């Protein structure tokens, strides 16, 4: 039995119970939670090995645990499992010699048994086989790694206490703080936290490790590489950052650095560090933009990076690519006039072109732009992919192929091979352990016309058996962001779980969604409750006009910005029977004052004391008296992007008005719900709430609640 067959058998074991075996893993929450999940991709220098990380449930079913799997780039052999550490492995990257580096919290076999909980460390799996060996560790853990493609020099990112010159001093300071029972943090600049964790007192530093010794490992003299701090002045609140790239020749490190932008704002610029001397100079510093995602050319002489213009009260951001000469810092824009937002750029194998990703018309496509402007399109970017959403793009060093993870609402992420030049590709998946053979319904694209005549694109999931004689109830699902779009599979928002229970699910891309042009974003800028709302209603109208949809049984739901829209919908219409709102914004003034990046949102909405207009017009809490629809409120206490106060205030406002409502509260989850048990309860509660109010069934409280 192959490793792939064994994993499939393992994931299907829970469905093999009796004659009531469901037709898909989406029909039972436990089966859905147990599905393998692929993430990340690494290609060996010779192009013969492709490695991804596959997350599955651990033996106790309490957490997802990742392992590294090898996929055949030629698509001839089944995937095979490479690692089986009890704590999991992730972030694979190859050395020039073919060794596979990865991070893992597996314990150091040479450490004392009372050494405390292991932290993420860097391990190496030899190219010629054998056991993985520990190569780099630090008491606080390794947060990131980059490898020079030609020289093999290694750079790592690790959190370090202020004033600690080396690992020993860092550990001593941490121990003293712990022994003294000190958890307090002193902040002297904004911000103070990020997504789900507090910032400080330790901050990321970038360390030069150099070439890893071939025989490195516990118990040998070479098992402790020398750490050289390339960012000794990194300080609070954000340190050196973790957006790091190493030139192929090992001479340079490029990194993004956050710098102050006004009294309480931040922006990022691009720095270049010469490894031999540690000398740092500014490569790109634009006071009106964030610069990030640098990648080196094969000859180490140029850098490509992204530029995101700063938002203003009048204008949303715009994105472009910059080509920068390392020696002179001369900069040239690569995508002028390109009405999409490029991201994740990297050079072609011969350095004559740049590949990048961008949302485009409800897809997340791969593009290629020639550096000399001599393509058949006159230098304009060429879209290489048709359907689907792509990530983790890998360029074969011989120029023969591209590899990526492809997903869509018809497939979770799976590895594919692409031609480096051909447009309009829709490649088949390479053999992998994450392919799903059956979905409980069909996927179609649906267009609507907004009030101003603009096209509004949506994805519509229809359950099996839905037709004019048996129309399906409809759930409107609003995406987050708001500057994103529905185009790729997300394990947090899987419409097929609802489709397996007979619901149709509408996934619209209203104003503010990216991938439809700058003017489409402008339509909703600073006016969240206006055009985005009317676009959503136009999409619902178009769906309800279909014979397969039962317009008398509908619900709306969303998370983050989608949660904001769910709240706004509740105040504007009673056309829906139920509304589910997750991690949602309710009181805009309160949100902007408490979120982890207030300066970003205030640029769009203005200072609430001097420019209150947009808060007054767009804050759902001001219209709470209009709510008539039952609501399920969901929030995690560790959510620092949309703090828990938003959920608490919404819940109270609903309760005191007598609105039928429930509050699903997660004390230890953040903006997302990341543990298997809580994820299962999330779906169970949502489904029970919808069943009660949309289907008219009796409320069934989830057993573990």
From TrEMBL:
The keyword Ion transport does not apply. Residues 489-694 form the Peptidase S9 prolyl oligopeptidase catalytic domain. Residues 1-27, 82-119, 217-247 are annotated as: Disordered. InterPro entries: 6-blade_b-propeller_TolB-like, AB_hydrolase_fold, Peptidase_S9_cat. GO terms for biological process: proteolysis. SUPFAM superfamilies: alpha/beta-Hydrolases, DPP6 N-terminal domain-like. One of its GO terms (molecular function) is serine-type endopeptidase activity. Keywords: Aminopeptidase, Hydrolase, Protease, Signal. Belongs to the peptidase S9C family. This is Dipeptidyl aminopeptidase/acylaminoacyl peptidase. It comes from Modestobacter marinus.
């Amino acid at each position: 039995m192959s490793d792939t067959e064994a994993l499939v058998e393992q994931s299907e074991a829970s469905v093999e119970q009796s004659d009531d075996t469901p037709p898909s893993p989406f029909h039972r929450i436990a089966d859905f939670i147990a599905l393998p999940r692929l993430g990340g991709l690494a290609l060996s220098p010779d192009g013969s090995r492709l490695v991804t990380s596959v997350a599955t449930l651990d033996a106790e079913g309490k957490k997802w645990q990742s392992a590294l799997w090898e996929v055949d780039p030629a698509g001839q052999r089944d995937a095979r499992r490479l690692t089986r550490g009890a704590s999991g492995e992730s972030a694979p990257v190859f050395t020039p010699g073919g060794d596979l580096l990865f991070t893992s919290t597996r314990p150091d076999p040479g450490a004392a048994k009372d050494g405390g909980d292991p932290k993420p460390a860097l391990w190496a799996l030899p190219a010629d086989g054998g056991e993985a060996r520990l190569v780099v560790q630090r008491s606080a853990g390794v947060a990131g790694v980059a490898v020079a493609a030609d020289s093999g020099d290694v750079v790592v990112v690790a959190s370090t206490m202020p004033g600690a010159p080396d690992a020993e001093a860092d550990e001593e300071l941490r121990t003293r703080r712990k022994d003294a029972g000190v958890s307090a943090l002193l902040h002297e600049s904004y911000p103070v936290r990020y997504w789900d964790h507090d910032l400080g007192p330790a901050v990321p530093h970038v360390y030069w490790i150099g070439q890893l010794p071939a025989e490195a490992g516990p118990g040998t003299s070479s098992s402790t590489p020398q750490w050289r701090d390339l960012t000794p002045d990194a300080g609070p609140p954000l340190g050196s950052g973790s957006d790091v790239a190493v030139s192929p020749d090992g001479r340079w490190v490029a990194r993004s650095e956050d710098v102050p932008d006004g009294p309480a704002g931040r922006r990022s610029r691009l720095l270049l560090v010469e490894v031999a001397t540690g000398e740092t100079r500014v490569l790109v510093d634009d006071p009106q933009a964030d610069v990030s995602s640098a990648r080196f050319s094969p000859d180490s002489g140029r850098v490509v990076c992204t530029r995101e213009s700063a938002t203003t009260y009048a204008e949303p951001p715009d994105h472009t690519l910059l080509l920068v000469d390392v020696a002179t810092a001369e900069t040239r824009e690569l995508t002028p006039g390109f009405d999409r937002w490029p991201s994740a750029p990297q050079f072609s194998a011969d350095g004559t072109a740049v590949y990048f990703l961008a949302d485009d018309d409800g897809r997340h496509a791969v593009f290629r732009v020639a550096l000399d402007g001599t393509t058949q399109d006159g230098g304009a970017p060429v879209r290489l992919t048709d359907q689907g959403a792509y990530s983790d793009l890998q360029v074969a060093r011989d120029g023969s192929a591209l590899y990526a993870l492809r997903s869509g609402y018809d497939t979770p992420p799976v590895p594919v091979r692409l031609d480096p030049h051909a447009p309009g590709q829709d490649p088949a998946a390479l053999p992998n352990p994450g392919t799903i053979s059956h979905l409980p319904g069909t996927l179609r694209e649906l267009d609507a016309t907004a009030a101003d005549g603009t096209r509004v694109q949506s994805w519509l999931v229809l359950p099996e058996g839905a037709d004019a004689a048996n129309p399906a109830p409809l759930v409107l699902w609003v995406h987050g962001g708001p500057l994103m779009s529905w185009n790729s599979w997300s394990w947090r928002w899987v419409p097929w779980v609802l489709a397996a229970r007979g619901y149709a699910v509408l996934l619209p891309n209203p104003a503010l969604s990216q991938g439809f042009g700058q003017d489409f974003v402008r339509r909703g800028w600073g006016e969240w409750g206006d055009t985005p709302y009317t676009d959503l209603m136009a999409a619902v109208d178009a769906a309800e006009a279909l014979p397969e949809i039962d317009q008398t049984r509908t619900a709306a739901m969303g998370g983050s910005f989608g949660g904001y829209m769910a709240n706004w919908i509740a105040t504007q219409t009673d056309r829906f029977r139920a509304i589910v709102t997750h991690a949602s914004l309710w009181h805009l003034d309160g949100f902007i004052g408490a979120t982890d990046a207030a300066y970003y949102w205030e640029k769009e909405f203005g200072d609430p004391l001097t420019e209150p207009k947009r808060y007054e017009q767009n804050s759902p809490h001001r219209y709470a008296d209009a709510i008539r629809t039952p609501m399920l409120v969901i929030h995690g206490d560790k959510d620092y992007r949309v703090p828990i106060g938003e959920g608490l205030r919404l819940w109270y406002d609903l309760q005191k008005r007598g609105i039928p409502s429930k509050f699903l509260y997660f004390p230890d989850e953040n903006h997302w719900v990341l543990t298997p048990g809580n994820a299962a309860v999330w779906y169970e509660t949502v489904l029970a709430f919808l069943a009660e109010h949309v289907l008219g069934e009796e409320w069934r409280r989830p057993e573990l609640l």
